[in-house]
Amino acid sequence: MCSTDCATPVACLAGVLEALAGEDLKGSFGPAVIERTGSLLVARNRLDAVLARTVREGELTQAAEHDGKASMSSWLRGHHRLSQGEASRLVRNGRVLEQLPALAAAAVAGAVTAEAVSTIAPVAAAENLARADEQGVDVPAVDAALATVAATRAHSELRQVVGHYLARLDPDGTEPDPTENRSFATARDSHGMVTGRFVLDEIGGEKLLAAVESIVQANRPAGDVRTRSQQQADALVQLCDNALASGDLPTMRTVKPHVVVTIDLEDLMDTSTGEGAGRTGFGGIISAAEARWLACGGNVTRIVIGPEGQPLDLGRSTRLFPPHLRRAVEVRDRHCVFAGCDAPSHWCDVHHLVHWIDDGNTDLDNSALLCERHHTKVHHGFRVERQPNGRWRTRRPDGTEIVVHEPFLVPA
Fold first, then answer.
1. Distance between CA 370 and CA 382 in Å, rounded?
2. Left (φ > 0), alpha (ψ -120 to 50) or beta: where does 254 sit?
3. Fewer Cβ in 10 A, N or C end of the chain?
């Protein structure tokens, strides 16, 4: 018990957390903030360990039945709104700490994170403990070694150590199918952003990382202030653009895969932002400005809708820039014309300098190559202009020019 005469340790914890939440951090000096952060991380590790052990006790005593739930996992999801994955991880960690006492001691001391316990979990699986027993493996020694690695080494190294141990434990086992545990799930949040989670095996992950990194390294324009995460997200979208533009993807019900947007003609022609004006093929809601951006380099099909919502007339699809004109633009511009960017032509869309919806011509003089990222920028206030001498200039939304300084050359 603490000095405040709390009824239970949990009540003491609630009081301490309330006091911590009420502290004013604005005047904290840097080293004090670092020290506080470290102490809180250790406390969180300890609390995670105690929670996992408590959940395990609930599992052993069937405590969830008290609230009419079949398992602790379902109780955690239903009563505390944990995700399926988090609830399963918590239950699994409780079982692991019961099987590996050295790891449990390190976790309770705050030296090992819940993520590390989850990484070590396969070691304590029933089939792997049985294999270890058959081969005379000193499991307590393995437990102690893994606890030390988890407490003192980088998490990536812990994953490698666990993988190496499991591989040595079953050296003659069948080679697992690397695709069996792959998963990819997406969802759309309240703002229309697509979020998701994917799990790839070592080879599949290496392919993804190699492809994304190639685009990240090839697209490093001057003055780039994007975070690493933003660069990789842009690279992933660029990969999709390249694949869709190649025409080599499998057909979807006799039609090549493409981005579909439905929008009223009045909204498309409106120069305002027009929030929520268009709907994508996968259920997203986009603005009229975003629809104009997508229409810049795609196909547009006119469909006349009757008063009761029935299609009355389907006009022919119109390709805004035909192949021969695109080739001419590529020969002239060679790469993205946005200042400081040299993204290759096959990454780029052909952009109308004066939008076709505003009666801009689809010709060489009214065109510019722009990569996906800078095409977006141009449709959000930036502007590119081609001078009579063929030089491109890029202007910010406030009208100032983005100037890329030439490297200083030492006279010979």
1. 12
2. left
3. C
Residue type, 383: R
**Kind of pairing, strands 303-305 and 299-300?**
unpaired
Nearest one of 269, 367, 295, 267 to 324, comparing CA atoms = 367
Ranges of each domain in the chain: 30-169, 182-256, 319-402
Q: Which residues contact 261 (CB under 8 A, 6 or more apart)?
A: 278, 279, 280, 281, 286, 291, 294, 295
Q: Round to whole Å and give the CA distance between 228 and 329.
A: 31
pLDDT digits (tens, 9 = 90+) for 195-206: 888 888 878 888
CA distances for 204 relative to 67, 182, 185, 210, angstroms: 43, 9, 16, 10
Write b or e for each residue in 1-16: b if 16 or more Cβ atoms lie within 10 A of its Cβ, otherwise e. eeeeeeeeeeebeeee
| This prediction's pTM | 0.51
Q: What pairs with residue 344 in β-bridges?
A: 335
Letter for the amino acid at 315?
G
Q: What separation in angstroms does the CA of 235 have from each of 196, 345, 349, 386?
A: 16, 15, 15, 27
Residues 6 or more apart whose CB falls under 8 angstroms from that of 178 comprise 201, 202, 203, 204
Token pair listed for 163: 């993988």
Task: Give the pairing of strands 367-371 and 383-386.
Answer: unpaired
The residue behind tokens 């001498």 is 389
Of 324, 376, 378, 371, whose CA–CA distance to 350 is shortest? 371
Distance CA(328)–CA(240), nearest Å, equals 24
Tell me if 64 sits within 8 A of 74, measured CB to CB. yes
Q: Tens of pLDDT along 263-312?
A: 676 666 666 655 666 777 677 777 777 776 666 655 555 555 556 655 55
